[in-house]
Protein backbone atom coordinates (compact mmCIF):
# COMPACT_ATOMS: atom_id res chain seq x y z
CA UNK A 1 0.00 0.00 0.00
CA UNK A 2 1.05 3.60 -0.63
CA UNK A 3 0.58 5.84 2.39
CA UNK A 4 0.74 9.63 2.27
CA UNK A 5 1.26 11.45 5.58
CA UNK A 6 0.40 15.16 5.43
CA UNK A 7 1.29 17.66 8.15
CA UNK A 8 -0.12 21.17 8.37
CA UNK A 9 1.22 24.50 9.64
CA UNK A 10 3.67 24.83 12.53
CA UNK A 11 4.30 21.10 12.75
CA UNK A 12 7.81 21.87 11.43
CA UNK A 13 8.30 23.35 14.93
CA UNK A 14 7.59 20.05 16.68
CA UNK A 15 9.96 19.49 19.60
CA UNK A 16 10.37 23.27 19.99
CA UNK A 17 6.80 24.55 20.25
CA UNK A 18 4.60 23.95 23.31
CA UNK A 19 6.39 20.78 24.36
CA UNK A 20 3.89 20.26 27.21
CA UNK A 21 1.24 19.68 24.53
CA UNK A 22 3.18 18.16 21.66
CA UNK A 23 6.19 16.47 23.29
CA UNK A 24 9.91 16.68 22.66
CA UNK A 25 10.22 14.70 19.43
CA UNK A 26 10.81 16.56 16.17
CA UNK A 27 8.99 16.16 12.87
CA UNK A 28 12.05 14.27 11.61
CA UNK A 29 11.60 11.82 14.48
CA UNK A 30 7.94 11.46 13.52
CA UNK A 31 8.90 10.79 9.90
CA UNK A 32 11.33 8.10 11.04
CA UNK A 33 8.68 6.54 13.27
CA UNK A 34 6.25 6.51 10.33
CA UNK A 35 8.84 5.02 7.96
CA UNK A 36 9.66 2.21 10.37
CA UNK A 37 6.01 1.41 10.98
CA UNK A 38 5.11 1.50 7.29
CA UNK A 39 8.12 -0.60 6.28
CA UNK A 40 7.26 -3.17 8.95
CA UNK A 41 3.83 -3.49 7.35
CA UNK A 42 5.20 -3.65 3.80
CA UNK A 43 3.76 -0.26 2.86
CA UNK A 44 5.52 2.66 1.17
CA UNK A 45 5.46 6.11 2.74
CA UNK A 46 5.43 9.67 1.46
CA UNK A 47 5.72 12.26 4.22
CA UNK A 48 5.29 16.03 3.87
CA UNK A 49 4.71 19.20 5.87
CA UNK A 50 3.77 22.68 4.75
CA UNK A 51 2.77 25.93 6.38
CA UNK A 52 0.82 26.89 3.24
CA UNK A 53 -2.75 25.87 2.63
CA UNK A 54 -2.42 25.80 -1.17
CA UNK A 55 0.68 23.60 -1.04
CA UNK A 56 -1.23 21.16 1.16
CA UNK A 57 -4.20 21.24 -1.23
CA UNK A 58 -1.91 20.54 -4.22
CA UNK A 59 -0.27 17.57 -2.50
CA UNK A 60 -3.56 16.11 -1.28
CA UNK A 61 -5.01 16.33 -4.80
CA UNK A 62 -2.05 14.29 -6.10
CA UNK A 63 -3.01 11.48 -3.73
CA UNK A 64 -5.74 10.62 -6.20
CA UNK A 65 -2.94 9.27 -8.42
CA UNK A 66 -0.17 8.25 -6.03
CA UNK A 67 -1.61 7.08 -2.70
CA UNK A 68 -4.01 4.48 -1.30
CA UNK A 69 -4.47 6.16 2.08
CA UNK A 70 -4.05 9.69 3.41
CA UNK A 71 -3.06 10.23 7.03
CA UNK A 72 -3.37 13.89 7.88
CA UNK A 73 -2.66 16.16 10.80
CA UNK A 74 -4.05 19.38 9.35
CA UNK A 75 -2.95 21.25 12.50
CA UNK A 76 -4.68 24.65 12.74
CA UNK A 77 -6.29 24.13 9.30
CA UNK A 78 -8.32 21.35 10.92
CA UNK A 79 -10.54 24.01 12.38
CA UNK A 80 -10.67 26.45 9.46
CA UNK A 81 -10.07 24.88 6.07
CA UNK A 82 -12.91 23.96 3.75
CA UNK A 83 -10.24 23.86 1.01
CA UNK A 84 -8.37 21.01 2.65
CA UNK A 85 -11.61 19.15 3.27
CA UNK A 86 -12.56 19.54 -0.39
CA UNK A 87 -9.10 18.40 -1.54
CA UNK A 88 -9.46 15.25 0.58
CA UNK A 89 -12.86 14.60 -0.99
CA UNK A 90 -11.38 15.18 -4.46
CA UNK A 91 -8.52 12.77 -3.77
CA UNK A 92 -11.15 10.17 -2.98
CA UNK A 93 -8.93 8.00 -0.78
CA UNK A 94 -9.56 6.83 2.78
CA UNK A 95 -8.44 9.42 5.34
CA UNK A 96 -7.27 9.02 8.92
CA UNK A 97 -7.05 12.21 10.97
CA UNK A 98 -4.32 12.55 13.58
CA UNK A 99 -3.89 15.07 16.38
CA UNK A 100 -1.00 14.85 18.78
CA UNK A 101 -2.89 16.66 21.53
CA UNK A 102 -6.45 15.98 22.66
CA UNK A 103 -8.24 18.77 20.80
CA UNK A 104 -11.42 18.04 22.78
CA UNK A 105 -9.92 19.08 26.08
CA UNK A 106 -8.49 22.31 24.67
CA UNK A 107 -10.07 25.61 23.61
CA UNK A 108 -13.61 25.33 22.19
CA UNK A 109 -12.44 26.53 18.75
CA UNK A 110 -10.36 23.33 18.48
CA UNK A 111 -13.34 21.05 19.11
CA UNK A 112 -14.69 21.26 15.57
CA UNK A 113 -12.83 19.59 12.70
CA UNK A 114 -13.62 20.02 9.01
CA UNK A 115 -12.06 16.60 8.42
CA UNK A 116 -13.58 14.30 11.06
CA UNK A 117 -16.85 13.48 9.30
CA UNK A 118 -15.12 12.53 6.05
CA UNK A 119 -12.42 10.43 7.78
CA UNK A 120 -12.47 6.71 8.42
CA UNK A 121 -11.43 7.59 11.97
CA UNK A 122 -9.29 9.77 14.20
CA UNK A 123 -6.34 9.25 16.51
CA UNK A 124 -6.42 12.10 18.98
CA UNK A 125 -4.44 12.96 22.10
CA UNK A 126 -2.04 10.02 22.14
CA UNK A 127 1.06 12.02 21.28
CA UNK A 128 3.21 11.45 18.20
CA UNK A 129 2.73 7.69 18.69
CA UNK A 130 -0.70 8.38 17.16
CA UNK A 131 0.93 8.55 13.72
CA UNK A 132 2.10 4.96 14.14
CA UNK A 133 -1.34 3.83 15.32
CA UNK A 134 -2.89 5.56 12.32
CA UNK A 135 -0.56 3.70 9.94
CA UNK A 136 -1.43 0.38 11.57
CA UNK A 137 -5.15 1.11 11.52
CA UNK A 138 -4.97 2.38 7.95
CA UNK A 139 -3.23 -0.74 6.65
CA UNK A 140 -5.74 -2.94 8.49
CA UNK A 141 -8.55 -0.91 6.93
CA UNK A 142 -7.12 -1.24 3.41
CA UNK A 143 -6.56 -4.98 3.87
CA UNK A 144 -10.14 -5.44 5.05
CA UNK A 145 -11.51 -3.39 2.13
CA UNK A 146 -9.59 -5.53 -0.35
CA UNK A 147 -11.25 -8.78 0.78
C1 LIG B 1 -2.90 19.75 16.41
C2 LIG B 1 -4.06 20.44 17.15
C3 LIG B 1 -4.44 21.74 16.47
O1 LIG B 1 -5.52 22.35 17.17
C4 LIG B 1 -3.27 22.70 16.48
O2 LIG B 1 -3.60 23.86 15.76
C5 LIG B 1 -2.02 22.09 15.95
C6 LIG B 1 -1.72 20.70 16.24
C7 LIG B 1 -2.40 18.51 17.14
O3 LIG B 1 -1.70 17.71 16.51
O4 LIG B 1 -2.66 18.32 18.33
O5 LIG B 1 -1.20 22.78 15.33
O6 LIG B 1 -3.38 19.36 15.13
TrEMBL record:
<keyword id="KW-0028">Amino-acid biosynthesis</keyword>
<feature type="site" description="Transition state stabilizer">
    <location>
        <position position="17"/>
    </location>
</feature>
<dbReference type="GO" id="GO:0009423">
    <property type="term" value="P:chorismate biosynthetic process"/>
</dbReference>
<comment type="similarity">
    <text>Belongs to the type-II 3-dehydroquinase family.</text>
</comment>
<keyword id="KW-0456">Lyase</keyword>
<keyword id="KW-0057">Aromatic amino acid biosynthesis</keyword>
<comment type="pathway">
    <text>Metabolic intermediate biosynthesis; chorismate biosynthesis; chorismate from D-erythrose 4-phosphate and phosphoenolpyruvate: step 3/7.</text>
</comment>
<dbReference type="GO" id="GO:0003855">
    <property type="term" value="F:3-dehydroquinate dehydratase activity"/>
</dbReference>
<comment type="function">
    <text>Catalyzes a trans-dehydration via an enolate intermediate.</text>
</comment>
<feature type="active site" description="Proton donor">
    <location>
        <position position="99"/>
    </location>
</feature>
<feature type="binding site">
    <location>
        <position position="73"/>
    </location>
    <ligand>
        <name>substrate</name>
    </ligand>
</feature>
<protein>
    <recommendedName>
        <fullName>3-dehydroquinate dehydratase</fullName>
        <ecNumber>4.2.1.10</ecNumber>
    </recommendedName>
</protein>
<feature type="active site" description="Proton acceptor">
    <location>
        <position position="22"/>
    </location>
</feature>
<feature type="binding site">
    <location>
        <position position="79"/>
    </location>
    <ligand>
        <name>substrate</name>
    </ligand>
</feature>
<dbReference type="Pfam" id="PF01220">
    <property type="entry name" value="DHquinase_II"/>
</dbReference>
<dbReference type="GO" id="GO:0009073">
    <property type="term" value="P:aromatic amino acid family biosynthetic process"/>
</dbReference>
<dbReference type="InterPro" id="IPR001874">
    <property type="entry name" value="DHquinase_II"/>
</dbReference>
<dbReference type="InterPro" id="IPR036441">
    <property type="entry name" value="DHquinase_II_sf"/>
</dbReference>
<feature type="binding site">
    <location>
        <position position="110"/>
    </location>
    <ligand>
        <name>substrate</name>
    </ligand>
</feature>
<dbReference type="InterPro" id="IPR018509">
    <property type="entry name" value="DHquinase_II_CS"/>
</dbReference>
<feature type="binding site">
    <location>
        <begin position="100"/>
        <end position="101"/>
    </location>
    <ligand>
        <name>substrate</name>
    </ligand>
</feature>
<dbReference type="GO" id="GO:0019631">
    <property type="term" value="P:quinate catabolic process"/>
</dbReference>
<dbReference type="GO" id="GO:0008652">
    <property type="term" value="P:amino acid biosynthetic process"/>
</dbReference>
<comment type="subunit">
    <text>Homododecamer.</text>
</comment>
<feature type="binding site">
    <location>
        <position position="86"/>
    </location>
    <ligand>
        <name>substrate</name>
    </ligand>
</feature>
Amino acid sequence: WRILVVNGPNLNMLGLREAHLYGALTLEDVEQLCRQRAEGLGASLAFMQSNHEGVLVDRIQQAREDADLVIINPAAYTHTSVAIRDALLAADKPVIEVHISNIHKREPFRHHSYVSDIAVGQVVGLGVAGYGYAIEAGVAYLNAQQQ
